[in-house]
Design goal:
Number of strands: 0
Radius of gyration: 24 Å
Structural class: mainly alpha
Order of helices and strands: HH
Strand content: under 5%
Distance between the termini: 69 Å
Number of helices: 2
Mean pLDDT: 75
Low-confidence stretches: none
Length: 88
């Protein structure tokens, strides 16, 4: 009887752990999507503020392609050394 209860407890623990990992994976993809949407919104605000003649749809297309390219190529931003010397 003890073995049956032990096996049952281990089975429940394994299933609970698997569900917890699945929830983490879903929440990570949700967070990435929210971050991407925030980047698109910020980009659209900048484009529409800089150019009052650009349409909402045009700004949306431009920003979605820019954010998509950044996500596909995360090292696309060049690192530029600062002009000021570093402090010792």
């Amino acid at each position: 009887m003890t073995r049956v209860l032990t096996m049952f407890a281990l089975g429940v623990a394994m299933l609970t752990g698997a569900q917890a990992l699945a929830v983490d994976a879903v929440s990570q993809s949700t967070m990435k999507r929210r971050q991407m949407i925030a980047q698109v919104v910020n980009c659209m605000k900048k484009h529409m503020a800089a150019n009052s003649e650009i349409s909402y749809n045009a700004a949306s297309k431009i920003c979605k392609s820019q954010v998509g390219n950044q996500n596909n190529n995360p090292v696309s931003v060049a690192l530029v050394p600062s002009d000021s010397p570093t402090k010792p």
